[in-house]
UniProtKB/TrEMBL annotation:
Signal peptide: 1-20
Domain Thioredoxin: from-to ranges: 59-214
InterPro entries, sorted: AhpC/TSA, PRX-like1, Thioredoxin-like_sf, Thioredoxin_domain
Organism encoding this protein: Allocoleopsis franciscana PCC 7113
GO molecular-function terms, A-Z: antioxidant activity; oxidoreductase activity
Keyword Signal on entry: yes
Protein name from the UniProt record: Peroxiredoxin
PROSITE patterns: PROKAR_LIPOPROTEIN, THIOREDOXIN_2
Keyword annotations from UniProtKB, A to Z: Signal
Region (Disordered) residue spans: 22-54
Length: 238
């Protein structure tokens, strides 16, 4: 009888322990479940992006461009919403990438920058290369590159943690985005139609950024709002 009572008690204790150990795991699993439909249909937020928000806030053409805060090569803080009422170009860059060099060594990128900023457009070059990765620069080096290449961006944003880059799903250098004065993303994709690193191809290519800026200026829809970007992969922090 004593043995039977002991056995019943042991079984009850085992059940209790099993339940206690399994319940938190089950709860965690349930709380982590997401609805794929919701994640792809939610409109982009207009709030500034922080590191913890980056994975949940995604830029989509035709929708409000996600706000963000970034620090430039001179230590000045910029917020996308500060430029409301102006067209904004985002250019992902990596000075060591041959596809980027194609457009800078040919003078193509500088020409675009000067034409755009001369027309009142805000041009933000963004460096999302992580420390120790190809293309990562600090402020002084970024300024030296701007000067030596005769570049003319409004500012060079240093995004070494990749927050801004991941928010805009920037995949290559270069990867270009055009935002309307109303704050909507009008274009995302390649700089032009020839995906090579050959400088001789620049003059033969259709420049998608120029086309997008013209359309936005004239209040017209961009004929090719999305294209396949080409270039080196963005060297994000692992």
């Amino acid at each position: 009888m004593l043995q039977k009572s002991f056995l019943v008690g042991a079984i009850a204790t085992l059940v209790t322990l099993t339940t206690a150990c399994s319940t938190p795991n089950q709860t965690a699993s349930n709380s982590g479940t997401t609805n794929p439909t919701e994640s792809t249909t939610q409109p982009a937020s207009n709030q500034p992006v922080t590191s913890t928000q980056a994975s949940a806030t995604v830029a989509r053409v035709g929708e409000p461009a996600p706000d963000f805060t970034g620090v430039d090569s001179n230590g000045k803080t910029h917020r996308l919403s500060d430029f409301k009422g102006k067209t904004v170009v985002l250019e992902w860059t990596n000075h060591e990438c041959p596809f980027v060099r194609k457009h800078y060594e040919s003078g193509n990128m500088q020409k675009l920058q000067k034409a755009a900023t001369g027309d009142g457009v805000v041009w933000l070059s963004v460096v999302s290369s992580a420390p120790g990765q190809q293309g990562n620069v600090e402020g002084q080096k970024a300024n030296e590159l701007t000067k030596s290449r005769n570049a003319a961006p409004t500012a060079v944003l240093l995004d070494s943690d990749g927050t801004i880059g991941r928010t805009y799903s920037a995949r290559t250098t270069p990867h270009m985005f055009v935002i309307t004065p109303e704050g909507k993303l009008a274009y995302a994709g390649a700089i032009d139609s020839i995906s090579s690193s050959n400088k001789a191809d620049v003059s033969k290519a259709e420049n998608y950024v120029t086309d997008a800026l013209k359309a936005v200026k004239n209040g017209q829809p961009v004929s090719k709002p999305t294209t396949q970007p080409y270039g080196c992969s963005v060297k994000y922090k692992a």
